[in-house]
Amino acid sequence: MARRKYVVGNWKMNGLTAALGEAQAIFDAAKAHPAVDVALCPPFTLIGPMLAAAPGAAVGGQDCHSAVSGAYTGSVAAAMLADIGATLVIVGHSERREGFGESDADVKAKAEAALAAGLSVILCVGEPREVRESGGAIDYVLAQVAGSLPADFDASRLAIAYEPIWAIGTGLVPTVDDVAAMHGAIRAKLGERAGSGAAGTMRILYGGSVNAENAAELLGAGDVDGALVGGASLTAVKFVPIIAAGAGL
Question: Which residues are tagged catalytic?
């Protein structure tokens, strides 16, 4: 069975209530492309309002803590995301790994907490530019995959997002062949953990300067099952063409 395309918007630290109209426009337009699963991950403050503005939409968090509760000022537990209506969460984004010093073990613990809370997980991996230029990108990313995967997981609730750090927000994009090679290597690594059957059903997304102009080519590459989109997901005029590109494949 073919894997459904999955296009997810990561709003990062952007968006006030005035932006909810864009979310409504995105989810309304997505109804014209039922073959594509669409989700938005806004700041925590907008999850509830976004669900109220677009009932039934797939809305998620951008991060969660690994603990169920406790003295972690400013943090959000996975159960809190589920309680407010979120259905998914991103963990291990490079901006968390690089800016907040999160290790593979940290990401693994967060993924396990999210799955235990009933959320689906998008687990991010990706290499810095110097690793790509040295020829070590695949080994680097596969080590992240191995170190970050939960001990046990339901393959239907876990997706991997490959986001080369040097391509995020820079306008730089790997070649389609490089993306396909990385995604194929990730799927093989998943097969070692989950078995080839389960790994064959798991979705591997690409992220890093995805836009309306390059979406069709990237989403059409081997083993690319969708996109994790940053800046282009903030407005319907930029995000909906990416969804449409996925629907055309």
Answer: 93, 163
